[in-house]
Amino acid sequence: MAYPLSYRNLEEIAEERGYHVDHSTLNRWVINYAPELEKEFHKKKRPVNRRWRMDETYIKVKGEWKYFYRAVDKEGNTIDFLLTAKRDTKAAKRFFKKAIKRNGRPELVNIDKSGSNKAALNSINKEDSDAPKVEPIVIRQCKYLNNIIEQDHRNIKRITRPMLGFKNFHSAQKTLAGIEIMKMIKKGQMFGGDGLSPAGQFYSFAA
Predict the structure, then answer these.
(1) Quick one: DSSP state of residue 146?
(2) What is the pLDDT, as a whole number, of residue 37?
(3) Where are the alpha helices (DSSP H) in 45-130?
(4) What is the pTM of this model?
(5) What does the pLDDT read at residue 24?
(6) Superfamily designation of domain 7-206
(7) What pLDDT is stored for residue 15 in this prediction?
(8) Which pLDDT score, from 0 to 100, does residue 199 have?
(9) In the sheet where 108-110 sits, what is the strand order?
């Protein structure tokens, strides 16, 4: 989903064009196919810069706020994302481990004043301190440098706002993955996407 539309909005748009697709069916398609699409997209994702900007935002699930960890590089390219039930060192470390596994080790990460995010990075540096040729990740806490990730959060929230929250954690994870894929496509983060529209890029790896 690339635009701020609810599933009911999409159902109405399809109906206007002569197609009947129930909004619950659309939701089910996203939940079923988003994980596979994410896997395929990452095979074609361009490498990111090694200087990261990391922050978390809030997503409502079953009437409760959950935590959506995200990072972009200094050019604004999406690095990775993770929805968690808690906001603590364990959750932040899970996010960093996932991001490093899929994107390589950063040389620098800029974070806010969150103690848990800093503790997570310190823990990763400590674990890797004996590894040969592995430099410690530089941790920087500079608020204005995170303006780029905060603006990127707003682009995601603009899409999720019409949904008025998610019914369950599983649905939220899958839907957010689909939204992030489309945002990365629009940012030009896919190999082989030059000259193709966002829709054309999507079809090229989803087919």
Answers:
(1) G
(2) 87
(3) 89-103, 115-127
(4) 0.87
(5) 73
(6) Ribonuclease H-like superfamily/Ribonuclease H (3.30.420.10)
(7) 75
(8) 84
(9) 78-84, 64-73, 51-61, 108-110, 138-140
What CA–CA distances, in Å, run from 66 to 128, 161, 178? 30, 14, 18
Are the CB atoms for 132 and 159 separated by under 8 Å?
no
What is the Cα–Cα distance from 31 to 198, expressed in whole angstroms? 21
CB 79 within 8 A of CB 73: yes
> What's the pLDDT score for residue 165?
78
In the prediction, which pLDDT does 192 show? 85
Which structure tokens are listed for 169? 């954690």
Burial letters for 137-152: b for 16+ Cβ neighbours within 10 Å, e otherwise?
Answer: beeeeeeeebebbeeb
d(CA 89, CA 92): 5
Rounded to an integer, what distance in angstroms lies between the CA atom of residue 8 and that of residue 6?
5
- What the block records as the tokens of 19 is 């197609």
Low-confidence ranges of the chain (pLDDT < 50): 1
DSSP E strands, the chain = 51-61, 64-73, 78-84, 108-110, 138-140
CA 111 distance to own-chain centroid: 16
What one-character-per-residue DSSP string does 149-178 give? HHHHHHHHHHHHGGGTSBSSHHHHHHHHHH
> What's the CA gap between 94 and 82, in Å, rounded?
8
